[in-house]
Amino acid sequence: MGPLFTDEITSIALAISQPATSPRQQLEGKLDALNVRGSQTAESPVVTKESLIEPVQRINETLRPRGLEFAISEQSSRIITKVIDRETGDVIRQIPGEEVLLIAERLEELQGRIISLEA
């Protein structure tokens, strides 16, 4: 996942915080918020990892009571979503999973080697 845009974070926060009339509408709102990134133009400002820390913390404060937590991966700067058991604090599910993050990291390493071999 590439860099996030300010509008995308705002859209996700609004979609999550605004109640919808049905679970389907809630899901559609969240999906619409996630699709904002695809409609960004090249003129949109790119957000750095450091500038995401505070918004992610605020989103976590709001969503942690509902069992959701967001983090930024140290290695790849990807957004990680965790579903947490509110009673025990155990991670029920992580998206993307640890295995997927390791595979993505390994693919990036291999891509660098392939490019250097062709040059």
TrEMBL record:
InterPro entries registered for this protein in UniProt: FlaG, FlaG-like_sf
UniProt keyword terms in alphabetical order: Cell projection, Cilium, Flagellum
SUPFAM superfamilies: FlaG-like
Pfam families the UniProt entry points to: FlaG
Name of the protein: Flagellar protein FlaG
